[in-house]
Each structure stands twice: as structure tokens, then as C-alpha cells.
Amino acid sequence: MSGCDAKPFPRIRLLPEGDWYYALEKHNSSVWLGDPKLATTLRQHKCQAFNKNFSLPSSPSISFNMINLNKFFKCNSTRNNTLHIIQKKNDHFSGYNMYNGCEGFSIYYKLSQDDDEHIGAVPTNCSLIRLPIHSSDGDLFNLLGPEILVEWKLSDDCNKCHYDGGQCQTDKTNKFYCQKDAKTTTSSSNQRKETAGRNTVELILGTE
To answer: Which GO-annotated molecular functions does the record name (predicted)?
Structure first.
């Protein structure tokens, strides 16, 4: 994390060497993040917006979830796209909205995600991307937004570790272990819970 008191907002990374995001608003176990690069491409209606694909760190201590992401299928247009392949792709995405305003690819999407579970294998030359939705009206660029709501939850092992005065750590094989200082003193239950809450935020945001 860069500058907790920074103006207008502190900046954080979700992944090492990843893009920087603004921490816009924090709640008990969630935070709204703003993506300045995505905001620019959406405002200018640039197709580079569809090169973005959000991902979260994998941790044995915390599980993460991005609440307002929507599935989009980006299908490249190539010279090998025969009429048969095009028809097969259109049949596969029957009932989907299609955006073909970008050179070299088309975007298929639904605002309701209920039917996506039954879509099956993604067709050749198509890939799944996830982008944040902030509206249900307008064209595709107006539907998308640069803010992401990230929720997190401590694992039972990490929660117990914090409660007992330890720190949740990850070894080189991405396995959890609880680090305890031999000089750690026993504090009250309320103090331990407050520490757990603060450390939860540190785990998701990290430090620079």
C-alpha cells in the first residue's frame, strides 16, 4: 500500500508488480477499488478496455471475491473464421448481446449471469474476461465502470491465529502457518479481535 493518508486516495496493488488501484472506500470486510487506467479507456471508448482481466491473489489465509464483475467473452476475428465457424459461434452465444465496434474481435455478454453456468466450453478463438458493471442501460462502454468491490474473509486457521496473538503467514509452497512471538503477551479478547480486524486489512492491501 502506498500512503494511507495520500490524497485523494491511497493506492494499493492486488498482485506483486500488478497495476495500482485507488482504495476509494473501506467497510468492515470489503473495499471499493478504483482503476484509473480502466477509467481512462472507458471514458475515451477505447477497445483496450477489453484487454483488462481482473484477478485476485491466492492466499491460504484469506479468500477474496469481486462482487460486481460480469463475464464477457472476447472472440477474435481471423482469416480462418469461415462461415461455418462464425455460425457455430453465433449459435453457441445465442441469446447473448454482441458488441462488434472493436477491430479484430467481438464481445458477447449477458447482464444476467444465471445462464452462463450452462454455456459449456468456450469456442475456439474466444476467451473469458471479467470486467466491472456499474449500469444496466446504454451501450457496452456505458455499462462498464472502473470501480471494483472486493470482499475478503479470514480462514478459520488464520482467525484462530490472530485470536491467539499470532500473525498469519504463507510459506514458499503457499501453505499457511501461524507465526507467534515468544514474547507475545496475552491481551483481552476485545483487543485481539481489534488486532485481527486491522491485520485483515493489511493482509489484503499489503505494504509497499
So the answer is: ATP binding; kinase activity
Which DSSP category does 14 fall into?
S
Residues 6+ apart with CB under 8 A from 181: 165
The radius of gyration of the chain from alpha carbons, rounded to an integer in Å, stands at 21
pLDDT in tens, 12-35: 887 777 888 999 998 888 999 999
> What is the residue-wise DSSP string for 43-91?
HTT-GGGGG--------SSEEEEETTEEEEEEEE--TT--HHHHHHHHH
Which residues have CB under 8 Å from 12's CB, separation 6+?
Answer: 1, 2, 20, 21, 23, 33, 205, 206
Number of C-beta neighbours around residue 51 at 10 A? 10
pLDDT at 48: 95
Q: Is the pTM of this model over 0.85?
A: no
**Residue 88 pairs with which residues in a beta bridge?**
none
Measured CA to CA, the distance from residue 143 to residue 83 in angstroms comes to 30
Cα 207 to chain centroid distance, Å, stands at: 18
